[in-house]
Specification:
Chain lengths: 328, 425
């Protein structure tokens, strides 16, 4: 619309694009034109498309985060309204002095790193096996992916039964092999690994699918060239194929890590409450307990911000990586 | 030209739609708060005895007040956790229900400023004359009545499977101290294949609850009340934890940490265990079990050492301020404290009326005995885990301690220190 009409003659039908221009000779000041100049030629006209979602996301996501941050700076607890006149970092100091918070943060971090690494490794292994032109490939793929489609409420109950000390299938198997029974959920040194194992079982299929797509995108010539050069299968995967799966690894690990941060659903369903077994309390469960059981809104908000920063620490580098590669 | 027009009009159309969406969303913030004069009651009785009891309550309410439109909304899950979260959110957003189920006593402290005054109902119905004194005291906060009681469970209860204790040669009625209980558990361990005491510890509340009964039974009423009042005797707390560590460390089921109350209680019904400590809601499962009758197949014993005492629990309805239906809610509150409601609800819930003038003929023999114990009790100490003894923050702190120090391995020193710190003023 802002294109000047100095193309060709003055006859009306030669003006193919609009007819009347808003700013014919640059005389006078138009705020719309100024905005367009600053942000690109269609800034104002296209705003009706991007502005509503922009405002909605801004309000409900970023607005809510900022509000949460503000609440975490108050001393707000129980009912009533927070007092915004007296803001300080008291809740953050309290969190650092609270050993339960530190334990939960450490557990969250261990879950995050351990779960993601093992799930990726397992998913990659499955993907390579499924990709080797085996029989029943589709069936196997479906079987591996199936746990992912189940609700956490269901899988947590499965695992609660399987981890049962007396009747759980895991203890039955290992005791029939001659090992002693293990108190999977009751021993605070073991329970985190038990939960991690259950989550890994559920998400390995997802990692497999992402890797499978990555493997399918690698041209057959690469395999053939490696073979012609005399590389063994292991060497071929290690030196030729896996390095090409960097993109799949990064996108799968971001999804897995973000999930690990909010494993709340699984833990909630495992015990039917906000308090997971001793040794596997994570920030998400602690946050909900502080908010809804103790009504310590400000403290819960501070925990939420800590959780948010951890998530940002994961997603931020990923976004930057994509940005530098021109994908954003 | 026509092409151009079309494109413009489509753009405008989409733009207008976007604007309309925005306006619509903005309009939503107005909220749909009150639904007129409909009474809305929130509770957590979603299954089993609770659901049957609420059904009976609603039926009795409809009979008495046929003209009142009502909505009884059950919010289940995690015990009362989901209900409490929903209530907290609605009170926080200034959208209170007409009434919600909850515990009175120090539990009311968390609702500071958002509960109204139902003193008019208490006065009109002379509830002060017909309810036990503890109910009268515990339903007040800041010099006003904040709630009306519906029923009472007993906490210091121990149930047993008759055939298992007979096989072991233990006479439950002779167990009048915690040390006698521990000896009996040892006997069961040696004489039978059964679990001496079944415990469901997937949540921490069962252990906190067991602490309260053990402390009451072993250290006595004074020590227990001092603990609740914030001046605990450290030695009494330590001695209680020592007994608990002995019981939990030696005589409970191996899978305690992976099961909850329901499965634990099943051990009694199936004859896999001799004893269980619970509130008397556990007896509801026995009533529903086939071929499992009171006195023949299962029995009741006051928790050893706490004979003559009735550890109190109340199921009450709390009254929010800014009540959306204050007149109707008053009528509901009047109903809750009435004999009709208390009989209808409690006989199915497995609890007893808080009124002392109720005809107990519709209740089973077990609840009739409970009612007699309730009326004759020398002391009725409030419970620790269900709102009557300590405020909710203290309860959360106590459960944090149980979770980190006393869910196996059992660290008596750390747990003692944690409990003393949590309740001390």
């Amino acid at each position: 619309m802002t294109r000047n009409t100095d193309t060709g003659g003055d006859s009306g039908d030669a003006v193919a694009d609009g007819g009347v221009t808003e700013n014919p000779n640059g005389s006078g000041f138009s705020p719309i034109a100024a905005l367009n100049d600053r942000f690109g030629s269609d800034f104002v006209e296209s705003s009706q498309f991007w502005l509503p979602p922009f405002l909605l996301v801004g309000l409900f996501v970023y607005g809510a985060i900022i509000w949460n941050l503000l609440i975490s700076l108050t001393d707000f607890n129980s009912f009533g309204s927070p007092d915004y006149s007296d803001l300080d970092f008291e809740m953050y100091a309290r969190a650092l002095a609270d050993s339960a918070f530190v334990d939960a943060a450490v557990n969250t971090f261990v879950l995050l790193v351990g779960f993601t690494l093992v799930t990726l490794a397992l998913g990659l292994g499955l993907a390579i096996l499924v990709d080797r032109n085996i029989r029943f490939e589709n069936t196997l793929r479906t079987i591996y992916l199936l746990p992912m489609s189940l609700s956490f409420v269901v899988t947590a109950q499965f695992w609660a039964w399987m981890f049962n000390f007396n009747n759980g299938v895991i203890n039955i198997v290992i005791s029939s092999l001659g090992f002693g029974r293990v108190d999977w959920l009751g021993n605070p040194d073991i329970v985190l690994w038990a939960v991690m194992f259950a989550l890994m079982w559920q998400f390995a299929g997802y990692a497999m699918v992402v890797y499978l797509a990555g493997l399918r995108a690698i041209p057959n010539e690469h395999y053939e060239a490696a073979k012609v050069d005399g590389a063994s299968t292991i060497r071929m995967y290690w030196r030729v194929i896996i390095p090409q799966l960097k993109g799949s690894t990064i996108s799968a690990s971001v999804v897995l890590m973000v999930f690990a941060l909010k494993a709340f659903d699984f833990l909630y369903s495992l015990v039917g409450g906000y308090r997971p077994p001793n040794g596997v309390d994570i920030l998400a469960t602690k946050m909900v307990r502080e908010a809804y059981q103790a009504n310590e809104w400000a403290y819960a908000s501070a925990i939420a911000i800590a959780l948010f920063l951890m998530a940002l620490g994961i997603v931020g580098p990923y976004l930057y990586y994509q940005y530098t590669r021109g994908n954003l | 030209m026509t092409d151009q027009d079309k494109r413009l009009s489509r753009r405008h159309f989409v733009g207008a739609t976007g604007a309309a969406t925005l306006a619509g969303l903005a309009g939503c913030s107005g909220g749909d708060g009150g639904s007129g004069s409909t009474l809305e009651v929130l509770h957590a009785w979603t299954g089993g005895d609770g659901a049957t009891a609420v059904e009976a309550l609603v039926e009795a309410f409809e009979e008495e007040y046929p003209d009142i439109e009502h909505e009884f909304n059950p919010i289940g899950g995690g015990g009362n956790q989901n209900l409490d979260a929903v209530v907290a959110n609605r009170l926080q957003n200034n959208e209170p229900p007409s009434a919600f189920a909850g515990w009175p006593g120090p539990n009311l402290q968390q609702y500071e400023g958002v509960l109204g005054d139902v003193g008019n109902v208490w006065d009109e119905e002379s509830f002060e004359d017909v309810m036990v004194q503890e109910a009268v005291d515990l339903h007040q906060r800041n010099d006003a009545y904040r709630a009306v009681p519906l029923g009472s469970h007993r906490l210091n209860c121990m149930f047993y499977n008759t055939s298992v204790v007979e096989e072991a040669g233990v006479d439950p009625d002779s167990l009048t101290s915690v040390s006698a209980l521990i000896d009996a558990l040892e006997t069961v361990q040696n004489e039978t294949d059964a679990i001496p005491m079944t415990h469901g510890a997937s949540g921490t509340w069962t252990t906190t609850q067991l602490f309260s009964s053990t402390m009451l039974g072993q250290e006595g009423y004074e020590a227990y009340m001092n603990f609740l009042d914030g001046s605990p005797d450290e030695e009494a707390v330590r001695a209680t934890f020592e007994s608990l560590a002995e019981i939990l460390g030696n005589y409970i089921n191996d899978d305690a940490s992976s099961i909850g109350l329901t499965e634990s209680n099943q051990n009694i019904i199936e004859g896999n265990a001799a004893f269980i400590h619970q509130g008397n809601w556990a007896a509801g499962a026995y009533r529903n079990a086939e071929d499992f009758s009171y006195d023949e197949d299962w029995g009741f014993k006051t928790y050893p050492g706490s004979e003559g005492m009735y550890m109190l629990h109340f199921d009450s309805f709390l009254y929010p301020s800014d009540n959306p239906t204050s007149d109707v809610t008053d009528q509901f509150m009047t109903f809750v404290g009435s004999e009709a409601a208390q009989v209808a609800f409690n006989q199915y819930k497995g609890s007893i009326p808080t009124r002392t003038d109720v005809d107990m003929s519709e209740f089973g023999p077990f609840l009739q005995e409970t009612q007699e114990d309730f009326a004759d009790a020398e002391e009725r100490p409030p419970n620790l885990q269900h709102g009557l003894g300590v405020p909710s923050e203290t309860m959360t702190a106590l459960n944090d301690v149980v979770s980190s120090e006393f869910s196996g391995p059992y660290n008596v020193d750390a747990a003692t220190q944690g409990f003393v710190d949590a309740v001390s003023n």
